[in-house]
Amino acid sequence: MFIKYDVIVVGAGHAGCEAAASAANMGSKVLLITMNMQTIAQMSCNPAMGGIAKGQIVKEIDALGGYSGIVTNRSMIQFRMLNKSKGPAMWSPRAQSDRMLFAQTWREILESTPNLDFYQDTVNELVVSSSGKIEGVKTGLGHTVYAKSVVLTNGTFLNGVIHIGEKNFGGGRVAEKAATGITEQLVSLGFESDRLKTGTPPRIDGRSLDYSKMEEQKGDEDIVGFSYLEKPKLKAENQRSCWITYTNNEVHDLLRSGFESSPMFQGRIQGTGPRYCPSIEDKINRFAERDRHQLFVEPEGWNTVEIYVNGFSTSLSEDIQYQALRLVPGFEKCKMFRPGYAIEYDYFPPTQLQFSLETKLIKGLFFAGQINGTTGYEEAACQGLMAGINAHLSAYQKDPLILKRSEAYIGVLIDDLINKGTDEPYRMFTSRAEFRTLLRQDNADLRLTEISHSLGLASDERLNLLQKKIAAVEEVNNYLSKVNVEPEEINDFLKSVYSSPLLNKQKASQVLLRPGVGLKQMSQQIKSLESLKEYEDEILEQAEIQTKYDTYIEKEKQLVEKMSQLENLVIPDSFNFDNLVSLSTEAKQKFKRIKPRTLGQASRISGVNPSDIQILMLFMGR
Asked: Which of 373, 361, 404, 362 is nearest to 386 (CA)?
């Protein structure tokens, strides 16, 4: 029934979709196995993509030839660029998506991808050779399917248990069964596993809400989107609004009355939950001094009344959830579609992986997404993309693609996971990236498209667009450095932005360095810069950022160069850490377990001190 595949991808969530698409687009014969063909790319939690640092990841996925950005552009119902009041290194795109259209678009893209087959079944066992090489999978219907590489993207399904108050039952998502067998087999093969927890809020009938008691949150006038290849078709005036309301002390008191039956406080949930996206009961317990918490009321799509109550994730009993929500302003007459719940699931600490996301114990086996301890669609999708790329490269016995911390947020995420591991759901933030001035959302294509094109993922069309963009930005920058601006033509504009007037003529590039002065506005109001109107906003923005932040960018590049010296010092595979008597016990244990490839990697392992690195350098003759 089945041919032998190059790559099998298990699971069709955000990680699985990107993994299957990337491997197939690179030329591998791919089989995507999912429990349910109707839930491919399902947005199990909030119907949104992007956000702080997450938006940068989606743009990077797009630059590398992945599809999350294109799917989001096609399915968004609202777009906002977060942190615009801060510097461009902090700007983060976020889109509210139509949940059903998002999944439908993903499926259509996958079905139109050559080399990609689908099969609906469960995978409950891996086929592993006696030499420790993956050979395929066994399914619940009794099929054995062979492949050179396998990517596991099991999400929350591995021995998943759902909790609602005192009720608990097996499941990977509400109304979907858990996956069993894989954890037990991997543990028997020497893997370490543990438990994590995540949750989701109740879904509400939007017709039952009073929006007049809430704050409206509209989308941006300028819809930038996520893909460098395909612009969003959404019009600013057609966007769906989100809304903001708040809990209060009455809500908190009622929620506390349910704590005695709470699975979290009564110990029925053992797994650690996400620190930065806690449940509502966790919030009012940890932050008892606060008399209110913000709730985001988010529509689930164009053609549905279903509402996602962002900020009200909970595992309390249904009646407590319902009664508490009815005390929230605007929710007095709310009707519940389904209650919130917590889900506990197995994951495998990611220190057991190579930087390619291939497991250290089984050659050809890759992990991506929540199986590695991460949380979030974007974190899962980028791991899926990288696992799919490297599963293909492994199948064809080629060197893996490994992104550096200075190249992409994706590189930061994978480096953090491998070096530091995680004992709580890992979420990406801009603060995790030490080179975030270089890793902006606006320049992901400049950083990554050529890499993607060399792999055969980015098309010639995409590379041509990049080259035209680079040339146009260079033209604008050259023009700004040459043209002089006279005081009489610019001082009225400077006055309008509360900037001091010019006394003498000055290069346009120097004027642009002033706070509050933007290139687009200058081109519209200053006669000597009128020729810049012919350039797209994206080009003017990129030229402006490069001009304004040139000093900071250069300093960061110099820091990258210094750090790369440690990255170039390779630790031999045969290096015996037991010979280093002066090493701290913790460093020795972690070096032996993680097996760092370079001194740079060794220096970032949690618990390793600078003195440990100096000792290692000495013994390596440095």
From this structure: 404
Angstrom distance (rounded) from CA 466 to CA 12? 31
Among 540, 471, 470, CA closest to 512? 540
Question: Could you say which DSSP state residue 162 is in?
Answer: E
8 A C-beta contact, residue 175 and residue 200: no
Express each pLDDT in 64-92 by its tens digit. 999 999 999 999 999 999 999 999 999 99
> Which comes out higher in pLDDT, residue 122 or 581?
122
Q: For Cα atoms 459, 477, 430, give the angle at the middle one, nearest 5 degrees.
A: 65
β-bridge partners, 365: 150
For residue range 293-348, list pLDDT tens digits in order. 999 999 999 999 999 999 999 999 999 999 999 999 999 999 999 999 999 999 99
For residues 597 and 566, give the distance between their C-alpha atoms in angstroms, rounded to a whole number: 11
Closest Cα partner for 26 from 456, 580, 469?
456
Pairing of strands 506-507, 365-367: unpaired
φ/ψ of residue 119, rounded to 5: -150, 130
The closest alpha carbon to 415, from 552, 559, 563, belongs to: 563
C-alpha span between 282 and 287 (Å, rounded): 8
* Tens digits of residue pLDDT in 359-406: 999 999 999 999 999 999 999 999 999 999 999 999 999 999 999 999
Pairing verdict, β 242-246 and 294-299: antiparallel
Angle of helix 444-455 relative to helix 54-63, nearest 10 degrees, comes to: 40
**pTM (2 decimals)?**
0.93
Mind listing the domains of the chain with CATH numbers? 204-340 (2.40.30.260), 460-552 (1.10.10.1800), 568-619 (1.10.150.570)
Q: Supply the DSSP symbol for 327.
A: T
Residue 62 near residue 228 (C-beta atoms within 8 A)? yes
